[in-house]
Amino acid sequence: MATGMAEAEGGTIHYVYDCGARSVSNLEPIVAAYARRVSRIDALFVSHLDGDHVDGLDTLLARLDATTVYLPYLSASQRLLALARAEAEDRRLTASFVQVQFDPAGWFGSRGVERVVFVRNGDDTDLFDRDGEPGPKPGPREGPREGGGLTLYEQSQIRPIAGGQPGRAALLEMQIDSHIAVTSGRGAVDWILRPYVPRVSDARAEQFEKKVLIALGRAPGDAIDAAALQALLKTPEGRRKLRQCYDAILTDGGGEKHNAVSMSLYSGPASDSNLWKVETRSESGMTSWYGNRTTVGWIGTGDAKLKSRNPRQKWRSYYRAELARTMTLLLPHHGSKANFHADLLRYPLHICIASADERDEGYRHPSAEVVEAIEDADYLLAHVTKRLGSRFRETVQLIGPKTGARQQP
What we know:
Elements (H helix, E strand, L loop, with lengths): L1 E7 L2 E7 L6 H14 L3 E5 L5 H4 L2 H7 L2 E7 L3 H13 L6 H8 L1 H6 L5 E6 L30 E5 L2 E5 L7 E6 L3 E6 L2 E10 L6 H13 L10 H8 L2 H17 L11 E5 L5 E9 L4 E7 L3 E4 L8 H10 L1 H4 L2 E5 L20 E5 L12 H9 L3 E5 L7 E10 L8
Parallel strand pairs: 2-3, 3-4, 4-5, 5-8, 14-15, 15-16, 16-17
Antiparallel strand pairs: 1-2, 6-9, 7-8, 9-10, 10-11, 11-14, 12-13, 12-18
Helix pairs in contact: 4-5, 4-7, 4-9, 7-9
């Protein structure tokens, strides 16, 4: 669970990136402490729907309302494949987990969320046009939703999908090629939130969908509705069939597992024209100060597959400007060597964070190879665990414009 706060003249913005744990009980004191300091979440970013990243959302949203949730775009086939992957990995398929895949407006709306925004990369088919209805036409650029104060402004083309109703969040869609800016009554503040969702092929998901249609006794080309899927998942035999469909595509695809589509998030300056000072502090009492920096942002990576060359190059290309302004990297997949490459350390970073249980409890993250690469690069490694004493905090304060730089509004 990563939380952020942007504070300037006019107010405060609160945002969260993921909220999960192996055991939700470990999150409860963290969420309770956070809720005592925060009245509302302005933006909640969910990298992907694996349990160790989202199992705490119920706990979080029971205490705090969230204005907008940002999710990575998934086609119907990919959402179905995510369910099968969870079943194949022996994770609990709760009713909530199924509903959030097929009815995010209802699941989040019933928990006080006003808007769900799907962040997408590429010109795929529309999210909810499987019944043959034409998808929505591009809407106007979305502006600040509040008058005055500090707010968020989506610097992107927004497409409305479905309007909000009592108990249901409004659904929207945005492209990845822009950002969400922190703004005040006097204009933009030099801080942005920029998500990235990789563009992926849906071929294997479509192959899987065909097998599920056979298991459901449906004709090829039929839509797989949530009710039929929930009926399938309610019985051990139905779950066995779903797992067999998943295992079949692994065999057909050469044995590689389907990887979840994971959304990264940059939080940091929109430019390098200002100087900042940073205080980093761990709960154990270690405090460090860094002044006169232009590199003060952080990037969360969820479970991004950054070991593979092609996805990593696309990720680096997308974040080329932001990586030059980044100080802290939240390591992909808890510091797993299967998601990491030393290329990620070729930037002016200073701190790497691994969110993982303690190694002495039998867990393997962060991997020894990852730790060694970070040490060789002379960067700091913060290992954040379920223990309250492992929390890590950064405070970034604007000093002023660099000499010769144009003053920000």
